[in-house]
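#onboarding

Welcome to the new folks! Below is a worked example of what a typical request in this channel looks like: someone posts a single protein sequence, and someone else replies with the predicted structure as tokens. Don't worry about understanding the tokens yet, we'll cover that in week two.

Example request:
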Amino acid sequence: MTAHIDWQALTRIHPELSRLPAPLRVAAAVRAFGKAEAVFRIGARPQVIHFLLTGEVRLVRRSRTGGEVILQRVRRGFFAEASLESAAYHCDAVTAQPSEVLRIPLAATRRALDTDPAFRRAWIAHLSRELRRSRAQGERLALKSAAERIFHYLESEGSDGVVRLTVSRKAWAAELGLTHESLYRTLARLEAEGHVTRRGPVLRLARHSTLASPHRGARFKHAR
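Example response:
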């Protein structure tokens, strides 16, 4: 764990951490994890709140046949927030690559929520955003075609149909529940047909697209 945290630099990179009150900043520490290392294991008693600074963490369970079921892929921000009120973790958290995790003691977090109204409001707002994102993800994965999932993502995660990807295309495909071959093939077709434009990491849904227009006005409006 690090002995000192440069909060000024950290909050420039992760502005959501600017809401942490002073007692939590004093109590927090950063821990580095190697690839495929467990951040926590199912059944363990929660002791800290986690915030991913760098890398990637996957929340996973094992199926009845022993296969790995990925519940969530985390590339930055808080994760496993439900542990605040849980007696034990309900899944494993395992790094997909070397990662740094900010760890905030659970007891201190509870005290701050009880005594600091500004932090409590910020935490409630954060949970509300996560709930909306989770609902949008569930709706997106229920869509049958790759094109529909891409359109839904551009609408629900972007601004006016524009998204700047911060992960690799392969990682984005996994988030959409698609193979990367299917994603590449569908994107190429949509671009050739004029429904989507690409410029580096920026993807834009064409306003004139007849496929996109129903999504913009009705179907995905509630997922924003």
